[in-house]
Every structure is written in C-alpha cells, then in structure tokens.
Amino acid sequence: MNAEPLLTMRGIVKRYGGVQALRGVDFDLLPGEIHALLGENGAGKSTLMNVLSGVVEPDEGDMRIEGATTRFADPRAAQTAGVATIFQELDLVPGLDVTANLFLGREITRAGVLDRGAMRRAAREHLAVVGADIDVDQPVGELSVGRRQMVAIAKALTYASRILIMDEPTAALTAAEVDRLFRVMRDIAARGVGIVYISHRLEEVPRVADRVTVLRDGRVAGTGPAAAPQSELVRLLVGRPLAELYPKRGARFGRTVLRLERARFSPKRARAGWQAPDDVSLRVRSGEIVGLAGIMGAGRTELLTALYGAAGPGAWSGVVEVEGRPARLASIRASRGDGLGLVTDDRRGSGLMLRDSVGRNLALTVLKRVSPFFLMSPAREAALASEAIKTFDVRPPLPQVIVGALSGGNQQKVVLAKEVLGQPRLLLLDEPTRGVDVGAKGEIYARIRALADRGLGVLIASSEMPELIGLCDRVVVLRKGRTVAEFDGGADEHAVLAAAEKSEGNAHE
Amino acid sequence: MNDAAPMRAASAAPSPTGRRIDVFAIVVRFQSVIGLVLVAIGGIIFSPRRHGHILFLAPDNMANIVRAVSETGIIAVGMTFVIITAGIDLSVGALLSLCSVLTATIMTSGGYGLIPTVLFVVLCGSAFGGAQGLISNRFRLEPFIVTLAGLQVARGLALVISGNQYINISYGNGPGLAPPVFAILGDRLFNNVVPVATLVFVVVAAIATFVLNFTRFGRYVFAVGGNDRAARLSGVPVSLVKVSVYAITGFVSAIAGVVHAGQFNFGSANDGTGYELVAIASVVIGGTSLFGGSGSMIGTVAGAVMLGALANILQLNNINAALQLLATGAIIVLAAVLQSLVRRREGLGR
C-alpha cells in the first residue's frame, strides 16, 4: 500500500487503577481501508478505541492523524478532528425523530431559530449516502435495529469523518442487514474514509476488511491481511489452541433440579422489548450444565430473571418444578428459598458493590449466617470470605481489597463466589464471562464445572456460541421466548446457530 | 502474519492496589477528624486571650460548642444512615420543630407524665419519617421530593398545633405544668461542665455507631447504598431497609425536638430552620458519599463538632455570620472534592 497512513498509534499505554488495559499498542489505519480489530473481551479493543475517540486519554504513547501529533482532551475534540464512533449501544435518542438525531448538538439555525426545513433536506442527503430509505420524521425508537444502525452511520458521517470507528455493528443485525451494512461500509471507504471495524465474528473479517489486527491482554498479538486463515486468527486471539479452554464434560447426572414443561411467564404489565418466556420446556439435572442459546432478544435473560423471581409482578403457568416439587418462583425471596441463585450479565450494575471490599461483597448472600442474633460476627464472616477467595482463586487473595479495583475476571469470580456461598442447588448464570479476559475465562469455566461436579445444576445463558458448545452438557435453543431445539454438548455450531436464527428473516418489520 | 509482540505468559495478574499503605486514602477516610483537629489548632492560635487564658479552650466555651452542635449532631447521626443508602431527608429540621411543639403542648396540657410524653413524641417522629420512606419507596419517588413535601407538612402541622405561638413550658407539679425533671435537658452535669443535651448526642451517636458497624441491619444499609439491585438480587430486604432509614431520621429528629424543647423551655413552629442543611453538611464533611454505599458515623460526629467549633472561633473573633456561611460552604466543597478525587483514583468514575 502506498498511501500515507491516516492514523498511526505508537506505544499506547492505558492503566485503570491497578489494571493495565493497554500495554504499548501500535495501530495504523490507511485512507480507504477497512481495518478489523479483533480481541477477546478485555483484550483492550474498547480502550484503544476510547483513546482514539477522545473518551480517555492515554498514559503513554504517540498518536498521529495524517502525520500530525494529536491528543484529544474529550470526544468533541475527536469529532472536530473527523473521528466518529458508532457505539454498540447506538447513541441515538429514541424519542426524537431521525432529523433531530442526526443534528443533535449541531442543529442548523437561522437567526437563532431551528431551521427544520434545511435540516430535513440535509438529513435526506446524508441518508442517501448510506443508501437507506428512511422517513426523516419518524422517531428513531420506532425503527428496527438495522435501520437505527444506518441512522447512526449517517450521523457519524455528518461529522465529515476521516476516521469511522464501528464497535460490533453487526451484533444485533439479521443476515440481510449485515449484507447491506457491509456494502455501505465499502462505499464509504471508497471515498477515502478509514474504518476501524471491531467485531467478535471472525467469519466476517475476510468479507469486509482489508487488514486485521488482533489484540490480546492489552498488546498487539499480530497484524496482517484479512484473508489470513481463521485458525491463525483464533490462535492469536486465544494465545493457545481452543480445546484447552474448556474443562471435561460431566459424566454422571443426578436427580432433576429444574423441570419446565410448556412453562410460560405472564408479566402483570407488558414491557416493550421484554420477551417473556412463552413456551419453555427444559430440564436441568444435578451435576449438569445446560446452555441457553438464542439471538439477541430471544428471551434468554428474561427466562433467567423470571425463574429467579426478579422479573417484577407476574406469574408462571405450565409445569414449573424445582427438585420435583411445584414451585411458584414468584419473588426473589421465594426463588432463593427454593434453592435458586442468579448471577446477572451485568456485574457492575447488579452484581457488586464496587466501592466496597471483596469480603463485604462476598458476605452479601450469607448475612444471616454470619450475624447470629442480628450481630455481625467478624470471625464467621472472615472464615467464609477466605474460603470463597481460595475456592475461586480470587487475585489478590485479600478480602479487604476494593472490588472495583480488580480485573474483570476477578470481579466475575467474586460475583460467582458470592452466589455460591448462598448454597444454591440451581445456579442461573447470564453471560458468565462477559468482559473477562481469556485466561480468566478458562478459570471460570473450570469453577463452573467444579460446582456442577459437586452436584449443582447450572443453567447458562450466553451469546458466545463457542462457549455454550464447549462448556455445556446440553444446549437448549430459545427463540422468541420458546424453546425450539435441543443439542448435545459439542454439537455443530452452525446447526445451533441455524436453529436460533430460523425464520428470523420474515420476523422483523 | 507477523507477530508484533512476543507470546506472553497469561498468568501475570495485574498488581493489586490494596496492599501498599495508601496515605491519601487514609487522609480522606478520616478527613473530618483531621479537619476537626486542624480547626481546633486554628482555634487555639486565633483565639482571643484574656489574662493569658485561651478563651477557646475555656471549659465554658468548650461546653458551649458541644451543646450548640448537639441537636444538629443528633439529626446528622440519623442522616448518615439515609445518605449511606444514597437517599436524603430534608424534613428533619421541620420535624424537630413539630416535635418540640408536640412535646411542649402535651407537657403543658396533657399531664401524661414525662416518659409517656417523650415516647409518644418519638413514636410520632418515627412514624412521620417512616411514612415518607414508604411513600418514596411505594411510588418510586425521589426522596428529595418526598421529604421536601414532608418538610412543608411538618412545618404546617407545627404551625396549626401551636397557633404560631411559642408554647412555653413552665415547671412544677399540677395541671399545665411540666415535670421539673424535664428541665434537666438544659442543664450541665459533672461540675457544671457537660451539657445534658450533649450527653444525649453522645448516647445516640454511640448506639448508631454500633448499629451501623456491628449489626446485620447496618450491613444492609451499606449494601442498599452500594448497589441496591445487587442487594435485592442477593436477598436483602431492600424496601424494608429504605423505609427503616427514614424512620430512623424521624426518630432522631423527634429526640432532637424533645431536647430542643427541654433546652429552651418552649416549643416553636419556627425553630429548626436550616438544620437539615447543617446535618447534611456534617455527614458529607464526615466522608459519607452522597452516592451511597460508604460512610462513617464517627466521621459524621467529628464533622458536626468541627462545624460547631469553626462557628465558635469566628464568633469569638467577632467575625460576622455571613463569613461563617462562606467558611462552611468552602469546607463542604473541599470535603466533596476530596471524595471525588478518591473515586477517580479508584477508576470508578464520577
């Protein structure tokens, strides 16, 4: 390639508290290039892009745009310099219409008054560039996810961007929408814009990108042409062959811990975007790890929260049995009483008291056990905490460390340990390795398997298909709140995916 | 494909921040105690002297300081619970006034005896606070709004009951007279040194320190403030805790109201104005985070005494009240900035 790089980043270092997110990363982007950035959760992709888009300032390193040294104090400065980001959670305001969203913060005015006519005309032009036929007066909240994505891209391009960062733009799209998105991306690149394309999906890389860079543990593991074989990418991503990541499957299963037969949860108040469990049949035995597969919006999280009694007012119907006895699971208290435990997909939002110590977080589910006659017993608390820290190998192994200062993987171990201290018989796990680096992932898989071997039943929801297939004894596929298929562990990934996505094509719009 | 970086052993854990001694964190943790010491030193230096005696350190002056802070201090102790749950209670000053009116009215007209009267008033205060907690919790309203309304209601009730008159308390035996023992609240004990009001403050603070740090309920309070969703999912009775902390502020406001009536020998619907802000300031200066989840009762007590000592120094030097307000404001900002620096250093944002 002969062009002068649009962007060069050299030796970028970023630390968060005690955690080093980037350990000296080099990254280049050429004009007109689509450069895929790969990495497991926690590898540093988001941090690197946050540096580029001015969200965080690097601790060390040099960044040049078209040869000029640049340092962005805030996202606005980056936008002014022509760097636009399209985040995974599209930063659009659902209640405002398309036009208003496109010009949010940079409204066209005449004599201080909004010039709606001019904005609507400009909005149509911008949308035409991305080839999207969208009504500019429609509230964004009424558009499908794919169409919102197009609006977000059009919005990013209104910054007259030289560099476009796209963070997992295909995560929530259907196959047809992905095709269209890729066409638009190539059109945009053809005009000289450099695109950084972040994705989890390896198979997409050769389809759309020119080059690929793989990050691992805050360093560049490798960089090269996008046509590199997938096995090579996997090796770079994981740092070792995949097989060792997952523990051995369970051999013996005990009695049934959870049985759902045509079970249905009717919430008292319907909520938009909340896919209630509609027709669910599945079984989890003691010692067994069962996976819940499904595309985004299939109702995996909803099923787990409803089982845990945390889905708000509502009632289960059909057969719902815990350890052979009918269970109502009507409240968190009731579900816990029946022996259920839940680890949510959001450890920072609903799992941990981030500013409190590891020990005090661990004690949360066992406060009754460590406070006879309502008085806290520091000795009992310390004993339970140190036991949990040892079992789950939390590092550093100190109960007094503030949880928020731990790495994602260690935080996740604390959440898991906390729930396990509560002595559940059925453990519900939602995305148990989200935002966890690969090394810690393997450890967490090993702990989950060890728990199952001790007789727990485990039900895991995950959007990472390899994880479900590699870890689980069985995988149940959920679609629109219904169980539609069941596979044995180690099944073919494509077969499971096909079952999860079936009939999705005519399901939207 | 060219490897840009060599393979790295995956076992190196990030270095923990917890092991080394963190001077800055300790300073912030005990900021109000340190602040109190600094203010005391400043008091000694800048105190006017008479016949070589430092007026600031005179027993009478010391007693004045701790007596002056006892009512807001008692309230601040309760406020600490609320603020640790990330709530706020603006009704406390008005509730103090309502309770002082209730106390005086019942003493001078009921003749129910001291203990039933005090129990009744304290029960009313707790119920008032608890009701605010219930409303805020049941209808998912911001405690700020609910207790702002509560402030108006309490003030209004006090005005109605008192007819906007001072309800003076006369002591003696007989109808319309309060039991003389009640007047002890305005006295000093132990060689006329320790004000009884301050003793009440000390007892309330001691009990609260114990409850917050050594009981299950105390841990619930921290958990609700630290992350109420996590607490709920872990089986903590979050709603009950949230209602309870407002019952606690109601309870302490009532105690402060009784103390107020006893100290000044009247109940008035116009007293206690702005006490809520002094109490909140004491809590914040004491290092309790308005975001909830962390805080210290000892910090609150030190914060309350520090504010009192500061006001005292300024008064001794005849510096006018406007400057006192400025100084208090500056200290609150300083305390908040320190807290924010800690959070940023921990990489937790905000």
CATH topology of chain B: ABC transporter involved in vitamin B12 uptake, BtuC
CATH class of the largest domain in chain A: Alpha Beta
For the biggest sheet of chain B, the summary is: 2 strands, antiparallel
Shape of chain A: globular
Radius of gyration of chain B: 23 Å
Tally of contiguous helical segments of chain B: 14
Strand content of chain A: 15-25%
Q: What's the CATH topology name of the largest domain in chain A?
A: Rossmann fold
Helix content of chain B: 55-70%
The overall pLDDT of chain A, averaged over residues, is 86
How many independent structural domains of chain A? 3
Annotation field: number of helices of chain A: 17
**Overall pLDDT of chain B:** 85
Strand adjacency order, main sheet of chain B: 1-2
Q: Which architecture name of chain B does CATH use?
A: Orthogonal Bundle
| Poorly predicted runs of chain B | 1-19
Number of strands of chain B: 6
Structural class of chain B: mainly alpha
* Molecular shape of chain B: globular
Q: How is the main sheet of chain A built? A: 6 strands, mixed
General description of the model:
The complex is a heterodimer of chains A (509) and B (350). With 509 residues, chain A is of the alpha/beta class. Chain A folds into 3 domains: 7-244, P-loop containing nucleotide triphosphate hydrolases (Rossmann fold, 3-Layer(aba) Sandwich); 254-339 and 424-509, P-loop containing nucleotide triphosphate hydrolases (Rossmann fold), CATH 3.40.50.300; 356-423, no CATH class. Chain A has 17 helices and 22 strands. In chain A, the strands form 5 sheets. A 6-stranded mixed beta sheet of chain A has the order 6-9-10-3-11-12, sandwiched between helices. A 6-stranded mixed beta sheet of chain A has the order 18-19-20-15-21-22, with helices on both faces. In chain A, strand 21 and strand 22 form a beta hairpin. In chain A, helix 4 crosses helix 5 (145-157) and helix 14 (408-421) packs parallel to helix 15. The longest helix of chain A is centred in the middle third of the chain and has 16 residues, at 175-190. The model of chain A is unreliable at 504-509 (pLDDT under 50). Chain B is mainly alpha-helical and 350 residues long. Chain B has one domain: ABC transporter involved in vitamin B12 uptake, BtuC. Chain B is built from 14 helices and 6 strands. A two-stranded antiparallel ribbon of chain B has the order 1-2. Chain B has a two-stranded antiparallel ribbon with strand order 3-6. Chain B has a two-stranded antiparallel ribbon with strand order 4-5. In chain B, helix 4 (70-84) runs antiparallel to helix 11 (238-264). The longest helix of chain B has 27 residues, at 238-264. The two termini of chain B are 42 Å apart. The model of chain B is unreliable at 1-19 (pLDDT under 50). The interface between A and B is large, with 59 and 44 residues.
